[in-house]
């Protein structure tokens, strides 16, 4: 599962890339990338509040991924401990817990772009196991 990097991290990576290329001013970055100088300045040097198309164009130019791989849920002691304390060990209960997690995700708690794909995969597995 992937998640968006936070904006300050993206800006740091962009500025680091451009500095390594000898492009440290908004004018030099603008000339190299073809992005308007005022847009470069606003988006890299003037405390932007949100991720913009300009950030995306600059990231594409610099070949910087705007997303991170999310941690494997199995590596979370907190999550695994909570699951171990509530799960009764049955497939039926596992399905119910999964349904609760998907409902929570649909309710607006950080639905990722591939969350629906994960849910569809889980539903397909559930149907497959029900048919056995």
Short recap of the structure:
The chain is mainly alpha-helical and 132 residues long. It is 63% helix and 5% strand.
Please render the helix and strand layout as text.
Elements: E1 2-4, H1 7-20, H2 26-33, H3 37-45, H4 53-62, E2 67-69, H5 77-86, H6 91-106, H7 115-130
Antiparallel strand pairs: 1-2
Helix pairs in contact: 1-4, 2-3, 6-7
Biased composition (Basic and acidic residues): 117-132
Region (Disordered): 108-132
Main sheet: which strands, in order across?
1-2
Poorly predicted regions are 110-115
Portion in beta strands: under 5%
Q: How far do the termini sit from each other?
A: 29 Å
**Element-by-element helix/strand order:** EHHHHEHHH
CATH architectural label of the largest domain: Orthogonal Bundle
Helix content: 55-70%
Question: Could you describe the largest sheet, including whether it forms a barrel?
Answer: 2 strands, antiparallel
Number of domains: 2
**Strand tally:** 2
Number of helices: 7
CATH fold name of the largest domain, please?
A: 434 Repressor (Amino-terminal Domain)
What structural category do the secondary elements indicate?
mainly alpha
């Amino acid at each position: 599962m992937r998640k968006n990097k936070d904006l300050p991290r993206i800006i740091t990576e962009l500025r680091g890339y451009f500095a390594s290329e000898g492009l440290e001013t908004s004018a030099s970055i603008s000339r190299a990338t073809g992005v308007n100088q005022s847009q470069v300045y606003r988006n890299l040097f003037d405390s932007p509040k949100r991720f913009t198309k300009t950030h995306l164009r600059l990231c594409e130019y610099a070949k910087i991924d705007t997303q991170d791989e999310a941690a494997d849920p199995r590596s979370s002691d907190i999550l695994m401990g909570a699951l171990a304390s509530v799960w009764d060990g049955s497939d039926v209960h596992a399905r119910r817990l999964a349904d609760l997690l998907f409902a929570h995700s649909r309710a607006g708690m950080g639905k990722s772009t591939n969350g629906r794909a994960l849910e569809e995969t889980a539903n397909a597995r559930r149907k497959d196991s029900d048919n056995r």
